[in-house]
From TrEMBL:
The lineage of its organism: Bacteria, Pseudomonadati, Pseudomonadota, Betaproteobacteria, Burkholderiales. Residues 47-151 form the Rieske domain. GO terms for molecular function: 2 iron, 2 sulfur cluster binding; iron ion binding; oxidoreductase activity. Pfam families: Rieske (PF00355), Ring_hydroxyl_A (PF00848). Residues 1-24 are annotated as: Disordered. SUPFAM superfamilies: Bet v1-like (SSF55961), ISP domain (SSF50022). This is Rieske 2Fe-2S family protein. It comes from Paraburkholderia sartisoli. Keywords: 2Fe-2S, Iron, Iron-sulfur, Metal-binding, Oxidoreductase. PROSITE patterns: RIESKE. It comes from the Bacteria. Its cofactor is Fe cation. Belongs to the bacterial ring-hydroxylating dioxygenase alpha subunit family.
Length: 418
């Protein structure tokens, strides 16, 4: 196909057949990728880390997002701030991606020196009339929700981030997630487009056949299922599922815990998210192979182990919070066919490895699941780039959230004039 005959980004997104997958060009084209980064990662709120990334004053977490880079710092007053990783002299990067600890932020090029509050403190050879006060680091809008550090690189940050914060803060509050530390963190570069990573995360049609570790802690009905033509045995299992859910919710709500599903996934929502407290299968305690807590030191001041799984989705992240630990994952797009997935396992700040928890028991479910998902995304991406690919129909029972994501994606492009 000649360049002149290529469909525009808008035509591809809004020309999708409802209830069907996106066209392959939306996953593979470089121009589409660059627009996606600009719209969905520079103009929307995104998850960029957790408070335990910067536990002490002077700690810095540098996160690259497309051509942009940000410095997440904890300042001397224990506040978490974010700054553009650009020296106000000639633009050099102050820090490479990753974590470090500093007294001040010093540009490696000409040694312009910034306090953690962003102010420019020291320069040489600029003369007595040079005004440092207007050359501080450029701030990045930041919200802390539980342990989650959300940032927005746009000057016009979506105001509906307030809804996510108001919804999630009381759900996370019992776990006191700011009093956690990172027990383990891992990175995977998945060989697929970022939208395929999110689509894969939004459905569990594939889970029963590909995620034996993850499904050990999920009730199978939570994967989604076709309710038509159920056998008597399947109907009894469904009735038992509803009864178990009702009993769990009743018990949790008596303890003052929020359980209901809340979702803001419609095309008009700039800040897209969903949350719910899900029942854990088996022993009902945690996402582990034996469904018991991996850490005997529970989060916050909790005493009860069977609190289910408080999950949260956003358009670049997914979180699972149990009584004993939390798993937080977020994505950064690297190329049309490459997506970085960062995952952090959080435990109580006082939990001791080998005493309170075994690291393998804590991490084995999501280490395996992430690796399996990376393989699935890679094979899915390769198929979407095959000339024979035609978007197929979604299951109306198990892929509802994939359809909603596709609708939201097209609408947000339109909202930004694409």
């Amino acid at each position: 196909m000649s360049v002149a005959n290529l469909k525009t980004h808008s035509e591809l997104a809004r020309g999708r057949t409802p209830g069907h997958g996106m066209p392959g060009e939306l996953f593979g084209r470089q121009d589409v990728f660059e627009t996606d980064v600009d719209v969905f990662f520079h103009k929307h709120w995104i998850l960029a880390g957790v408070t335990a990334d910067v536990p002490e004053p002077g700690d810095v977490s540098t996160v690259d997002i497309g051509k942009a880079s940000i410095l997440i710092v904890r300042d001397d007053d224990e506040n978490i701030r974010a700054w553009r990783n650009v020296c106000r002299h000639r633009g050099a990067r102050l820090k490479d991606a990753g974590k470090s600890t500093v007294g001040m932020l010093v540009c490696p090029y000409h040694q312009w020196t910034y306090d953690l509050d962003g102010s420019l403190k020291h320069t040489t050879h600029m003369g007595v009339d040079f005004d440092r006060s207007c050359r501080g680091l450029i701030p990045v809008k930041t919200r802390i929700v539980g342990t989650h550090i959300f940032v927005c690189l746009s000057d016009d940050a979506p105001a509906d981030m307030d809804i996510l914060e108001q919804t999630m803060a009381p759900r996370f509050a019992p776990y006191d997630l700011t009093r956690t530390r990172i027990a383990h963190e891992a990175e995977i570069i998945e060989n697929g487009n970022w939208k395929l990573v999110i689509e894969n995360n939004r459905e569990c049609y594939h889970c029963g056949a590909t995620h034996p570790e993850l499904t050990a802690s999920f009730l199978p009905e939570d994967f989604g299922f076709c309710p038509q033509g159920l056998s008597e045995e399947s109907q009894r299992a469904l009735d038992a599922y509803h009864a178990r859910n009702a009993a769990s919710v009743s018990s949790w709500e008596k303890d003052g815990l929020i359980c209901n599903a809340f979702e803001r996934l419609d095309p008009d929502a700039a800040t897209s998210f969903r949350t719910q407290r899900l029942v854990i299968a088996g022993n009902g305690e945690s996402q582990t192979m034996d469904t018991r807590v991996a850490s005997r030191k529970l989060l916050g001041e909790l005493q009860r182990r069977d609190l289910g799984d408080v999950h949260m989705w956003t358009h670049n992240s997914w979180t699972h919070v149990m009584s004993d630990h939390a798993v937080v994952s977020y994505i950064v797009p690297l190329a049309p066919d490459k997506t970085l997935v960062r995952t952090k396992w959080l435990v109580h700040e006082d939990a001791v490895e080998g005493v309170d928890y075994d690291l393998n028991a804590l991490t084995e479910v999501w280490v395996a699941t992430n690796a399996q998902d990376a393989s699935l995304v890679a094979t899915n991406y390769r198929g979407t780039q095959d000339p024979a690919y035609e978007p197929g129909p979604f299951s109306p029972f198990t892929e509802t959230y994939v359809e909603l994501f596709a609708q939201w994606y097209a609408a947000r492009l339109g909202a930004h004039g694409v």
